[in-house]
Design brief:
The protein is of the alpha+beta class. The protein has 18 helices and 13 strands. The radius of gyration is 23 Å and the shape is globular. InterPro entries: Bact_solute-bd_prot1, SBP.
Length: 464
C-alpha cells in the first residue's frame, strides 16, 4: 500500500489495512453495545439490505477486509456488506467519478483533508445519531464537524506526545520529562534540559566555552516540524493556524509566527536539535530509534509502527506530555470513515460502521500501539484501560496512562484542523514549501509567512 508523507493519511492507510488483516486473524466479531448486529440470529427469510463499503488498497487487502465484513454479515439478518477495494492512486479519482454518476458507495474511507470539503459539497451524511442510545461514544475531539453537524467520526484516536531515551537521561543524570499534565515543562525548561543532553565530540554542551555546534554527536531534542503538527505550537503560544470556527487564517499573527520561529531556533540558535526540513514522516526513526536524539515529539502511533521493534532490540524509551509555551496543547487526530449522502440506507451504513469501528474489531491495532480507542469508556473505566494498556507493547502502565490516556481526554487535547476546517491539505502543502528556508536560517518565519500570507489564505479558501 502506498505510503503518504502526511501523517494522518499515512497512518490510516497502514492501520486500516492491518485492521482488516488483524481482525480476520483474531476472530474479532463482537458488536458494540446497543448494536442490533450482536443480538439478532442469522436468517435468510428476508432479503438483506446491501451496503457497499469503499476502501483504498489492493485486491488482497480488500479480500481481508471482506473477511471482516463477512463476520458482520453472519451476525445478523438485516444487512449485507460488500467491500469495494480501490488502489490508493486512483481512490479519489474513482470516488469523484462515482459521485458524478450518482453511484457512490454507501459508506467508505475518506482522507482527513477531504472530509469537510465533501461535507461542504453536500456529499456526506450527518452521523450524529450513530451512537444514540449507546453506553459510550467517541471522545468529542474525534468528531469531524461541519456547520455544527457531525459528519464523520475518526476510526481511531491518536495524540502527539514526547518520547525520550531513558538511558541518555540516566547517563546525564537529568530527571525524566513529566508524564503528568500538571507538571508539564515550560518551553524554556524543555530547551534548558535539551542543552544538558546535547553533546559535541569533546563532551561540551551548548553555552559552555569551547562548544562546537558543528561537531554535535548527541542532540537533546527534536520537535517534529511537519506542517500539521506545527499548529500545536502556534496554539500553545496563544495563536493558531485558523480561527476556532475554521473560517479565518491566523498563521500571520505574531503569536503563531513566534512559535514557529522558536521551533526553528532549536536548531539555528539553541543548537539542541538536528536540522529537519519538515518533509518526511519518519521523525522517531531518525531521532529516538537512531540513537542520535534524547527526546522527540511525534504521534502515539509510533509505539506500534516502530518503537516496539526498537524496544525488542534494546531501546529503553519513555513517554511524556509535551512542553508548552503559554497554553498546554496536544492534538488529536484519526482518519475518517464516512456515510455518503447518496446512500438509500444511512441507518444501516451507520450500524455497519459502528460495528466495524468498535475496539473489539480493531484489537490487534490497539493492543500493538498503532491505534488508540475512540470510545470514551476505554479512557474512563479503569478495567478497560488496563485491558488496553497492561501489555508488553506499552511503556509502564502509570507512565503511559498519565502521558497518553489521561492526556488524550484532558483540556489540552484539541482536534487537528482537518476536523473542522476545509482545504487543510492545500494549506499544509503550501506552508511546508514556505517554511523550507526558515529551517535552514535563510529567512525568518516572520518574513516567510508575511510574504506568503495572501497565498496561504487563498489555499485555505480553496483557490489555487
Amino acid at each position: 500500500m502506498k505510503t503518504v508523507k502526511k501523517l494522518g493519511v499515512g497512518l490510516i492507510l497502514t492501520a486500516l489495512t492491518m485492521s482488516a488483516v488483524g481482525c480476520a486473524n483474531n476472530g474479532g466479531n463482537t458488536a458494540t453495545p446497543g448494536s442490533n448486529a450482536a443480538n439478532t440470529p442469522a436468517s435468510s427469510k428476508e432479503e438483506k439490505v446491501k451496503i457497499v463499503y469503499s476502501m483504498w488498497g489492493s485486491a488482497s487487502e480488500g479480500s481481508a477486509t471482506q473477511a471482516v465484513a463477512d463476520k458482520f454479515n453472519a451476525s445478523q439478518d438485516r444487512i449485507e456488506v460488500e467491500v469495494m477495494a480501490i488502489p490508493w492512486e486512483n481512490y479519489m479519482t474513482k470516488l469523484n467519478a462515482l459521485a458524478t454518476g450518482g453511484q457512490l458507495p454507501d459508506t467508505g474511507m475518506l482522507q482527513e483533508g477531504g472530509v469537510i470539503q465533501w461535507s461542504a459539497e453536500g456529499m456526506l451524511n450527518d452521523v450524529s445519531a450513530m451512537y444514540e442510545g449507546s453506553e459510550s461514544k467517541p471522545l468529542d475531539s474525534l468528531a469531524y464537524k461541519y456547520e455544527g453537524k457531525t459528519v464523520a467520526y475518526a476510526a481511531a484516536n491518536e495524540i502527539l506526545l514526547l518520547y525520550y531515551n531513558k538511558d541518555m537521561f540516566d547517563e546525564a543524570n537529568v530527571p525524566y520529562p513529566p508524564s503528568a499534565l500538571d507538571q508539564a515543562w515550560t518551553w524554556d525548561e524543555f530547551v534548558e534540559t535539551a542543552k544538558k543532553l546535547t553533546i559535541d565530540k569533546n563532551g561540551k554542551h551548548p553555552g559552555e566555552e569551547g562548544f562546537d555546534s558543528q561537531s554535535i554527536v548527541q542532540y537533546g531534542a527534536s520537535v517534529e516540524n511537519l506542517p500539521w503538527q506545527l499548529e500545536t505550537w502556534a496554539l500553545s503560544n496563544g495563536g493558531g493556524f485558523y480561527s476556532e470556527d475554521g473560517t479565518e487564517v491566523r498563521i500571520g499573527e505574531d503569536a503563531s509566527i513566534e512559535a514557529i520561529q522558536k521551533v526553528a531556533d532549536l536548531y539555528l540558535k539553541d543548537h539542541v536539535a538536528p536540522l529537519s526540513v519538515g518533509q518526511t514522516d519518519d521523525g522517531i526513526q531518525r531521532t529516538i530509534i537512531a540513537g542520535t536524539v534524547a527526546m522527540a515529539t511525534n504521534g502515539q502511533w509510533n509505539i506500534g509502527t516502530s518503537l516496539n521493534t526498537a524496544k525488542e532490540e534494546g531501546l529503553n524509551y519513555g513517554v511524556a506530555v509535551l512542553p508548552y509555551m503559554k497554553d498546554k496543547v496536544t492534538l488529536n487526530t484519526g482518519g475518517a470513515n464516512v456515510v455518503f449522502s447518496q446512500t438509500k440506507h444511512p441507518e444501516e451504513a451507520m450500524e455497519w460502521l459502528k460495528w466495524y469501528n468498535s475496539e473489539e474489531n480493531n484489537w490487534t491495532l490497539i493492543s500493538s500501539g498503532i491505534w488508540m480507542p475512540t470510545l470514551d469508556k476505554w479512557y474512563k473505566d479503569e478495567t478497560l484501560t488496563r485491558k488496553w494498556v497492561e501489555n508488553p507493547n506499552f511503556p509502564p502502565y502509570d507512565e503511559y496512562k498519565s502521558a497518553v490516556v489521561d492526556y488524550a481526554q484532558s483540556s489540552a487535547a484539541r482536534p487537528a484542523a482537518w476536523f473542522y476546517t476545509n482545504y487543510t491539505s492545500d494549506f499544509n502543502t503550501l506552508l511546508g514549501s514556505v517554511l523550507g528556508d526558515v529551517w535552514t536560517g535563510k529567512t525568518t518565519a516572520k518574513d516567510a509567512i508575511t510574504k506568503n500570507l495572501d497565498a496561504l489564505k487563498a489555499a485555505h479558501a480553496g483557490n489555487k
